[in-house]
Every structure is written in structure tokens, then in C-alpha cells.
Amino acid sequence: MTARPRRSCLYMPGANAKALEKAKTLAADVLLLDLEDSVAPDAKADARDRVAATVKAGGYGKREVVIRVNGVATPWGRDDIRAAAAAGPDGVLAPKVESGAAVAELDNALTEAGLSKDAGLWVMIETPRAILNLAEIAAAARATRLTAFVMGLNDLAKETRARAGRDRAAFHAAMSLAVTAARAEGITVIDGVYNDIADAAGFEAECRQGLEFGFDGKTLIHPSQIDVANSVFAPSAEEVARARAVIAAFALPENAGKGVIKVDGRMTELLHLEEAKRVVAVSEAIEALA
Ligand code: COA
Ligand code: MG
After folding, report:
1. Of 18, 133, 196, 257, which sees the most CB atoms within 10 A?
2. Is the pTM of this model over 0.85?
3. Ligand nearest to the CA of 33
4. Burial of 267 by CB count in 10 Å (0-12 exposed, 13-18 middle, 19+ buried)?
5. Contact residues of ligand 1, CB 6 A cut-off
6. For a substitution probing ligand 1, which of 8, 11, 20, 22 has the most ligand atoms within 8 Å of its CB?
7. DSSP H stretches of helix in the chain
8. Ligand 2 centroid, distance to 97 Cα (angstroms)
9. Inter-residue contact 31 to 10 (CB < 8 Å)
């Protein structure tokens, strides 16, 4: 299981040279360089060239750099895949993926285009059919470089006609199923975007809700959203301290071989030890990014 922090995944339009440059100074764990929804048809080819050249030139430090391509059925998809793979990003994000077969096909196309085996395939979960096929899509991770699910709730709202209010009740089933499917196959799962850039309180509340659902992080649309996502999706100091106490307690000679012990008055089992190790690993991985 990977402890790679993916708390904050910032989209930026591939046509926006200024944003691509600014990203080199931003504290986002992941940069999603977009060729799809945020780029107008007439600007697609220029954006592709700019993003490919930018990724090749590098300068993004420890941030994971992921290129979002257009769908394979669009006039730009195939060229995007070729250019993205050749640029050598950490990952490629594909939109509108709806089946395990589509994941396998994308994975093959990326390999043929020369993408490193170490680079990831990220997929948008944003259509009704994708929700119905979540288990099968996630299972494709066993035989491909599938790395992460990214929720596309703006598209899902459009496709389903669901109207999600502040509590996102209309999406709870889809969100929970996506997290469950991702966990079943050990891949990352990232929550959707919060469109109202000016509403900091609403954004923070939605980050917390995403954390409660089990998401690893949130997709973002503006630099002002980075710090909150980084803080909400990181284990708190108390959580890390508690995790270290659990690890220390199980390591005591008198607890050797035990399946259940008491730590700070709470029943603590081996499953809590596993979770404690994960929390410490994530926290150390976050420290290593700094
Ligand atoms: N990534 C990197 N930098 C960004 C950014 C982003 N997503 N959004 C804004 N910035 C930069 C701006 O370039 C500007 O830089 P400067 O201070 O050097 O001038 C600064 O942050 C402040 O930007 P601001 O004026 O508040 O926003 P804007 O009006 O320029 O842009 C949006 C607003 C919504 C157009 C822009 O935030 C954006 O394009 N977001 C991403 C949209 C996207 O990719 N959607 C696809 C997935 S849903
Ligand atoms: Mg979309």
C-alpha cells in the first residue's frame, strides 16, 4: 500500500501558461495539468504542446505531475495520449472511464506511447455507467498501472440531473461506493471539486466531509484551497501521537504475541496496530515532502 500523500490535487488549465508556472511554487501534492474540460476546442492543440513542453522541462520538485487528457473518442484524445506519455509525467488522468476494458485499453495505449511503467493511470469517475461499474473498473488495477480514482461530480450532476446541496446527499451513494471500490483494490481515491472559490468555510466543511467518507484528498481549482486541504487530509498531531502510543504498546515485551491490549484505557487490537502504522507512514511521507 502506498503512503504517497495526495491531499491536495490542483487542476489548472493547460492553456494557462501563468498557472503552469505558478504551480512550481504552490504546496499542492499533485498538479493536474488539464487538456480537457477547462480548455476550449480551439485552444486544445496549443495547450497540448505547452503542457508537454512544460512537463518535459520539469521544475515541479516533489509534486506529482499528472496530465489530464481528452477522451479517446474525441478528436484530441489519441494525440493527447501520445504527447502526454512522451512528456514523462508521473501520471495520466483519463476522463469518462466507464469499464475495466476501457482501463486496459488506455493502459495499453500509454505503454505503446512510451509511458514509463512507474507512471500511474488515474481515471475520472464521472458518469452514471462508471458508478454502476465501479467494482470492475477498480479491479482493472490488478493487471494495469491504474493508480487512482478522481471524482468528477460536476459531470456526474449533469449526467444524472442530481441536485447536490451543501450536504451533497444526492452523491453520498456514489461517493461511498467509489471509496469502497478503491479500497478493495488498494488504489487512491480523490474527492471532487468545490466550485465556490470565495466560500472558504464551505470548502473546509466539504474537505472534512470528504475525509469522513474516506477520501485520500480533494481536487482543487484555486491555489487558495491548498492549505486547507493539506491540513484536513493530514493526520493531526493527536492522531499521530495516539498511533505512536499504540505501536509502542504492542512492542512492549509483556505484550508480545497478544492480539488485544489496553492502550490509554481503550481496547486496542492488531487491526488498530495496522492503522497506527499507516497513520505514522502517511505523516512521515508528508514530512518528507517539505
Ligand atoms: N492553478 C494555478 N494557479 C492558479 C489557479 C490554478 N488552478 N487558479 C488561479 N491561479 C493563479 C492565477 O494565475 C493568479 O496568479 P498571479 O497571482 O500570479 O496573478 C492567482 O492564482 C490568483 O488567481 P485569481 O485571480 O484569484 O483567479 P483567476 O480569475 O485568474 O482564475 C479560475 C479563476 C477559476 C479561472 C482559475 O482558478 C482556474 O482556471 N481554475 C482551474 C479550473 C480547472 O482547471 N478546471 C478543470 C477541472 S474542474
Ligand atoms: Mg469532466
Report:
1. 133
2. yes
3. 1
4. exposed
5. 10-13, 18-19, 22-23, 34, 37-38, 193, 221-223
6. 22
7. 17-22, 44-57, 77-87, 100-112, 128-132, 134-139, 153-160, 172-185, 200-213, 226-232, 237-251, 270-289
8. 11
9. yes
Cell numbers representing residue 114 in the block: 512510451
Nearest to 93 by CA among 111, 79, 116, 110: 110
Q: What gap in Å lies between CA 203 and CA 3, rounded to an integer?
A: 25
Q: Name the DSSP class of 225.
A: G
Residue type, 113: A
CATH 3.20.20.60 domain range(s) in the chain: 8-232
The DSSP 8-state label assigned to residue 86 in this structure reads: H
Cβ neighbours for 256, distance < 8 A, ≥ 6 positions apart: none
Locate 47 and state its grid cell: 495547450
CATH 3.30.200.20 assigned to domain 8-232? The reply is no
Which pLDDT tens digit goes with each residue over 220-273? 999 999 999 999 999 999 999 999 999 999 999 999 999 999 999 999 999 999
For residues 47 and 50, give the distance between their C-alpha atoms in angstroms, rounded to a whole number.
5
